Amino acid sequence: MNFGKTRRPAAAALLAAIWLAGCAGNPEAAKKRHLERGDAYSQAGKYREAAIEYQNAIQIDPRFALAHYHLAQCYLRQSDWQRAYQELSRTIDLEPANWKAQLSIGNLYLGGGRYADARAAAQKVLEGEPGNAEAQMLLANSDAAMGQSAKGLEEGRRAVEMDPNRAQSYLSLAFLQQQNQDLAGAEKSLQKAMALEPKSATPLIALGDLYERQKRGAEAEKQFQSAISLEPQNPVPRASLVTLYLTEGQKEAAQKAAADAKNSIPDDSAGYRMLGDFYISQGESEQAIAEFASLHAEHPRDAGAARTYAQLLILQNRLDDASKIVDAILKDSSGDIEARVLRGQILTRQGRPGDAVHVLEAAVKDAPNSAAAHYSLGLAYATSWDLGQAEAEWRQAARLQPRMLDAQRALANLAARKNDVNLLAESSAQLIKIQPRAPEGYVFHAQALFHKGDQAGAEADLKKAIEVAPQNASGYASLADLRLAQKRYDDAEKLFAQALAVEPSSYGALAGLVNVDLARKQAARALKRVQDQITRVPDSSAFYVLLGQLQLQNQHSGEAEAAFHKAIDLDKNNVPAFLLLAGVQLARGSVDQAIGGYQRALLSNPRDVRLYMSLGSLLETKGQWEQAEENYKKALAIQPDYPAAANNLSYLMLEHGGNVNVALSLAQTARKGLPEAPYVADTLGWAYFKEKVYPSAIDLLLEAVKGNPKSPTYHYHLGMAYAEAKNSSSAKKELESALKIDPNYAQADSIKKLLAELPGSD
Questions:
Q1: Where does 78-216 have alpha helices with state H?
Q2: Mean per-residue pLDDT for 142-151?
Q3: What is the pTM of this model?
């Protein structure tokens, strides 16, 4: 028997046990070993493996500040800004004098648009290290970002003086000089940076960007190509080259440069995903999805590419496919904020905004500085018709990241919807800063100026919208709207026609032409115009709605009904078509048919409060008040502050023995949303009457009568309140007014009986 072979494994196990015991007994040594391994992986560019080692060190000692800092740097290199921020924050909590961490978080603040926080971080470092050139430059960049460009330039020069051999300072100074329109000075600063770091691609890239800004395309291309030769594995100059080609309209060259980056840098996500990002930038969604599907198969551990792939699928409403990817990401990393945000977006699109709000509120709680989480939570609230909360979340997203296009666009749309001129001006100005070559910011800004009475300023904005995007219909159509408001009908017609030529499916342009015709009393021409455009764009549901509305104006209800049916056939989510169709049916007395139409509409649009409200009102007219109540409750479940539904539900409860306290609360909700509506004042007054609070009831019922003096119900309610308040003369006056308005009023017998019982009656 060979004893050597049998004893060796036991000896190895013993040695392993001794080693493990040593680790357990010496956690300091263990955590340092993990740190050293993490550093080795990081230096080799293996950031995922490095992160695991740093996390192991932190697991041994959660207060190991150096491991938190190195983990943050690892996340920064992977562009995982949220987790980098969390680790930097923890580092600073544990070690406030870690100036490198303070600078890193300050630069994150700067990149995220939190300029005041970035400035505060720079000042904190300068207090500890007065000669820190990097902190001085962060201060300069922060001031410049807050609109103090001259001050920023002065501080930038001071940073260069602090360390004249630091190339990065000259790079930042060049940026500040560009902001101050000193392009020659910026070029000299970049050349100085190149001299200090001749083997670095960064100054070459910056100089290429400067030349591109000056429309010196050939020189810019030369700098980018030189940077690629110097650092062939660096994706940044390749991305700059793609952008240059796109700016110059060389789409094929841009696509080739992106494909070259993918082939040349197969192990760096920023390189191999460049072609997919190119497709996204060009709006080529199918190619982008195909590319990211391939990347996801080739690099299944790349969470960033997986998240982008899932986002593309969500935008295409391929929600089941997106869910599988998000589930896989969260299985691997349950705390991944971006994946949780994607989960919330999926739930929102699935018509489950309540579940989406739950998921996204948790994400916001865990990552309060995630602009994407706040923005997506705003979308979930908006889908629930909670526009107040939606606005609050979008404002927070914009505060955290002022250059977040989606947040600013959402705010602008909301501001236009509720006619908030100040918010519209603010958000549209940000849109222009973010995308100066896109028309939408100028169009929104023009709306704000128009509502402020500045028609000249609005016109200038709209002309700029046309200039930057001559192939986009919105600039022409919006300027045409302005001309229509000015009653310059010939100019309006030409501009609307231009918009329709650019975009034949533009509802706004066609509707504008119809409005011009109607303003000229040319209804037949308007009708023919719509019919002709439908022959060109036969699948437009919106065009059939417009056709039906014109047919109604011409008293052709049969043709209108057919048009609305066609609109619904083309788009089951066209709620205005359902509402208009029901209006036609009701006009001819087909109440049951209208009810059936609303019920079918709800199958495709189960979260549209307008449909529940309209259906409830019809059921109420048929005396089916219990079913009406159910529909009002469903509307309020979707939008708890929906005033019309709150009012109607309150009134039904008061009339049919419901809980008076609940009815009063609902009436108060309605009053908050519709403070001027007489019918709401009547409902709230009637609720106070039921609660025996007669002075408040009388005040509100007087308001209702004043708002609509021809309503017998309002006079009846007011008379009842006066009677209970022992004001017989006023009670008699109001009750008699109710009978005079409608002798056959439903409560006529009750009124006559009460009149006979009033003191002083015969």
A1: 81-94, 99-111, 115-128, 133-145, 149-162, 167-179, 183-196, 202-213
A2: 87
A3: 0.64
